[in-house]
Amino acid sequence: MVRQSISFTKPNDEWLKEQVGTKEYSSKSELVNDLIRQARNQQVQIDWITDKLEKAESSGFTDDTKEQILTQSKFLLNG
Q1: 3-state helix/strand/coil string of the chain
Q2: Residue 28, CA distances (Å) to 3, 4, 31, 35, 66 in order
Q3: pTM of the model
Q4: Domain ranges for the chain
Q5: Per-residue pLDDT reduced to its tens digit, 58-74
């Protein structure tokens, strides 16, 4: 594991100490690593959604009704 030295603002340091104090995390390092992991997972989801939106926007418009779109969506989801 790579060792780093980072500085926190006073409010962030206090929050980190409180979280470690609840015994959910054994150290601030463990908590910071967990927060980074969560942010990375969120970025994967954001990238997936962005990709889907870009594909949808580039595919153009449809003349289908709401009901037709819903039926098609259900069919694609359920096979």
Answers
A1: CCCCCCCCCHHHHHHHHHHHHCCCCCCHHHHHHHHHHHHHHHHHHHHHHHHHHHHHHHCCCCCCCHHHHHHHHHHHHHC
A2: 13, 12, 5, 10, 50
A3: 0.67
A4: 10-78
A5: 988 889 999 999 999 99
